[in-house]
Amino acid sequence: MSAELGLAALWMSAALAILQLAGGAIAQRNPDAPLAALVRPAAILQGFLAVFSFAMLLWVFAITDLSVKLVATNSHSMKPMIFKLSGAWGNHEGSMLLWVTVMALAGALIAWLERRLPEKTMQATLASQGFVAIGFYAFLLLSSNPFERLATPAVEGSGLNPLLQDIGLAFHPPTLYMGYVGLSVAFSFAVGALLTRQVNPEFARVMRPWVLGAWVFLTLGITAGSYWAYYELGWGGWWFWDPVENASLMPWLAATALLHSASVLAARDALRVWTIMLGVVAFSMSMLGTFLVRSGILTSVHAFAVDPERGSFILALLCLYIGGALLLFALRAGSVSEGQRFALVSREGALVFNNVMLSAILGIVLLGTLYPILTEAFDVRVSVGPPYFNPVGAIFTIPMLAVMAVGPMLRWREDNIDRIKLPIAIVTVLVVTAALAIVLFTSDIGVLPLLGLAFAVGLGVASFMPLRGRNLLRVPLATWGMVISHFGIAVALLGMASESAFTDEKLVAVAPGEATQLSGFTITLESVDPIAGPNWTAMEAQITAQRGDGAPVVLNPQSRHFWAPVQQTTESALLTRWDGQLYAVVGAPSPDGRWQLRLWWKPLVTLIWYGGLLIALGGTLSIIGRLSSDIRRRQRLAREADERADMAALRVENGAAPAGGAA
Amino acid sequence: MRWTLWVPLMLFAFFVGVAGYQLFQPKDEFIPSTMIGQALPEFELPAASETRPGVTTADFKDGKSKLLNIWASWCLPCIAEAPHLESLKEEGVEIIGVAIRDKREDVDEFLATHGNPYSRIGADEISAVQLEIGSSGVPETFVIDGEGNIIHQHIGDVRARDVQRLLEILEDAS
């Protein structure tokens, strides 16, 4: 019954999305039409029903209802509860339902909370949100029904891919989707603004917290995904330039650019067309990513069920939504004036420069991701990886980091470099000293890690410079947000550069009782014993790691054998110290009784993810700061209006005002 | 109207064109052997079964095109393709087998259960010949012309729909 309720709710949400589109469209011609008043309620109800539908899917997974095809193919009665639940989105249909649920929820939130824009623009925005949702409802209901029943219930489920039976999966996809699909709000705002030609600072101020919110989730989702891949896949790497990773990075780059250009629009009424363009591009990248992952057009480690029919369906949706939005952009953006001018050396100038750099990096990642599709059309198979992405991306990342260090110190509209030459000199000296010190004290370091380390030091210090000479208690929360996010970039960069420059790796075969050395650690294999988990058995190694004369610490990497479905996985064991992580993987036994151990010492590697968390924290502070200052501004305006009205009334009472005066 | 505003749409249209074209291309997951069009390497394999003699390169040079089937008794798809090899044999095709990493008694049992369409069966215990002719899995079937040149490679089991095509290729090869 639950599955049928979920399906019914899904159909009703789809119907409400149609109502939302129709109402919003009619409101553009006739704001007083009865349907126009239904747009907001339809969006809110749609959100409720979509959440209900998703809750029903969670429920059938929780009780392992094996008459539902999706449960039978992706779950198993023996799985721990948390993985039963996360199994709901560990597959194509369930994750598409999560996608539309987030989309409906985002629409419901703007319909319920957002009252700052002209009603006509809001209705156009909600119509656009409904329009995009309809396509994905159709996709779900017509070709990927998650609630499909089996004619005869399965006796037992076939289980979830063991790699996905991890606490990482419980959090990574939902956060990522909140960000990924949350960007649909920016898309709809951009379309709404284009339709009603209302591109102004107020529009940017309204859009900004929503984009920030999606961006914070996206940042957390990417950070969690990276850490998950790092410890779960057992390869010791944290980023592989896999098409699916790129699919999450591209919307992030576009959203980051969008945040900054929206700031320029909000503060200075410049970059109108560019901001609209980024609003469209950010969510387009999310949809493009969905297409790349689910159509099977690219080979990726994130293999979803590959199906050309689904691929064509999503491609058609892409044509409709991205193509439609870009067509609207081409037709309408010409009539949006460019807004205020500004000097090259100014806050806006720096933001524009970095916007161009971010867009260039986005273009590079996009090109690298799509290039294999292009060359395959000419029967040439290529694989694009780090040798392309790292150096080519760096060409634009390095100038961006330099401008990022200086930009926040510049004034709006026009500034003089002389005014901030002292901080620039300090940062430059820091970068050069750091680079020289690293070259002197290390041997054989690559150019990119070297630049990464030096710039991380410079940016780390520079990110706090906008605070100098200010009363820290009076610095606005949004400024703190910027400072912390920029510092987070420096921290993550330090981790990345340090990991790639100084990682020490060792592959050894040792018998129990034998020891080996790695980067100051004495690592002893004590024993290897079989152990049993809820739905797996494993060979668990008992390893002690001792650093210098310190106390030995026990590590337990495993080689796990799952029986539903049958698969072998390696569970790495990590020893975290303030200055890095020891990463241990146990491999296969050799006939002479020795075991393969793969060991890494990765200095400062954890900074990559702490940096990600700091970036997200900065974003969160900015949202709170922006919202509270916006509320204060509105209260002040309302109070002033009240006061003016009171004064006018007083004057009228006293008979002092001439007729038709101040009122 | 500024033409630059149309650039994103054009780029997107180009992407849709390429992606749409690619979507409807058959996904070929296999890498064909670079040995196609070349002569078989020299080899000499002992018999894998009591019932049939072993295989040497010279056996392929009698002027008649034939099939070289790489298989193993431990391979499940080989069971699936057995009836189709049988029907190829009934069409008058000579099939020479190479059993990969197999044991004599297992080969005999397989042939007794699933039929024996082979004129000769060589035992390739370390996959040496298999790798030399550019085959990476079992089963695979090669079309060899009368002079011992590799004409065609069929990766995976031979299914009902492949029989006619293999017959045509054999026809062309002779």
What does this structure look like?
The complex is a heterodimer of chains A (663) and B (174). With 663 residues, chain A is of the alpha+beta class. Among the domains of chain A are: 1-160, no CATH class; 504-603. Helices cover 62% and strands 11% of the residues of chain A. Chain A has 18 helices and ten strands. Chain A has helices at 2-29, 39-62, 69-74, 81-86, 92-113, 119-143, 167-182, 184-196, 201-232, 243-268, 272-295, 308-332, 347-376, 386-406, 421-441, 447-462, 477-502, 607-654; strands at 504-510, 515-518, 521-532, 536-547, 553-555, 558-563, 566-571, 573-577, 580-589, 595-603. In chain A, the strands form two sheets. In chain A, strands 2, 3, 4, 5, 6 and 7 form a six-stranded antiparallel sheet that branches. In chain A, helix 8 (184-196) runs antiparallel to helix 9 and helix 13 (347-376) runs antiparallel to helix 14 (386-406). Mean pLDDT of chain A is 89; it is low at 659-663. The mean pLDDT of chain B is 86. In chain B, the strands form two sheets. Chain B has a five-stranded mixed sheet. With 174 residues, chain B is an alpha/beta fold. Chain B is built from five helices and seven strands. Chain B has a single domain, classed as Glutaredoxin, CATH 3.40.30. In chain B, helix 3 links the parallel strand 4 (95-100) and strand 5 (118-124). The termini of chain B are far apart.
